[in-house]
Amino acid sequence: MAKVVIIGAGGVGTVVAHKCAQHPEVFTEVVIASRTRSKCEAIVEAIGKPNFSADVVDADSVPQLVELFHRHKPELVINVALPYQDLTIMDACLLCGVNYLDTANYEPKDEAHFEYSWQWAYKQRFEDAGLTAILGCGFDPGVSGVFTAYAAKHYFSEMQTLDIVDCNGGDHGKAFATNFNPEINIREITQNGRFYKDGEWITTGPLEIHQTLTYPNIGERESYMMYHEELESLVKNFPSIRQARFWMTFGQEYLTHLRVIQNIGMARIDEIDYNGQKIVPLQFLKAVLPNPQDLGENYHGETSIGCRIAGLDKEGKPLTYYIWNNCSHEAAYKETGMQAVSYTTGVPAMVGAMMFLTGKWVRPGVNNVEEFDPDPFLAELAKDGLPWNESFNIDLEVK
Ligand code: NDP
Q1: Which tens digit of pLDDT belongs to each residue from 140-167?
Q2: How far, in Å, from the CA of 84 to the mean position of ligand 1?
Q3: pTM as predicted
């Protein structure tokens, strides 16, 4: 049916490629490109299909991207490189007439700050070009937005509070490691917290607010409130939401390491001079931490990510609702060679691409996932390794 280019050959890119390979009727040709050709070649070799090939691109460079797109003429680019490359890839898409999908919103390299304004500013240009851009199509952001849209469509007349809860109940056996790109992960966690209440954004200290929440099949875990990008689009697209928050679990050991890393200056993102060479401490730290892609082999346990929503049902009666997915690290590794954090990001990216290529999610402009019909996406997600569950009128616990 269509040719796609995947940019990024990390943990998430590997999963996207494996999942595309399971649907040759949709993804008739797939090119995997990143800065390091050998990484792309290794994925192509592991998949072992003649319609997969490897290429090389520095996605910080619009001319290189334009050349790549001219060479391959893809229908869609699946951007699973780093958030720094979102805008250059969107620019190249506009120059070459290519549709766009990503899993993380743009962040400038020199400022640990993310918001949608930079990418939403492309809306008119994508609309005028008749091109669809789908933003934030991983798990969170991604499925978290689709879950919310599904709740609005089928159960609520008015959603009032939304709590996105993200638990990694797995154990990789390392003293400290991040589950996806360490630089992006540590920048995200060490920021101030932020949540939405009655039309305003309220800022907290980093991981300042926490409470114990119970996760299906995992049990109780301390859950920390932090800012997450989908909150921004969800309160815009569902204006009845009065309070929106995001919670993520962390173990004490992890938090202690994180505190030390910050205290000794290793989380800094500004350049320092080291023996006459400029280095960014956080990028240096990434080079010595375990590679997230290598965690899969000994990873046990599950992730559990979902939305806890309260409001009024279609008849105007109070309703509480919880929708979630649990994903096993072992099962993800067995299928794709990657752990569940990469798996739960890569599968929705492939499903979003499939929604676009099969005509179900086509809307020229720049769109967040919750703006599309959630039903075909969630039906496909369940078939593709991420089944989901629902509970009604339960104690949502979130205080
Ligand atoms: P990795 O660090 O494992 O991989 C990143 C890949 O991007 C590497 O292959 C790297 O290539 C490539 N890359 C980096 N810079 C460039 C560049 N300038 N040009 C071309 N390629 C480049 O990251 P992950 O796979 O863990 O994460 C990928 C994305 O997924 C990130 O944006 C992350 O924020 C997002 N994510 C989203 C989640 C969600 O639920 N929405 C959850 C987890 C991650 P090379 O090594 O060759 O330089």
Answers
A1: 999 999 999 999 999 999 999 999 999 9
A2: 9
A3: 0.96
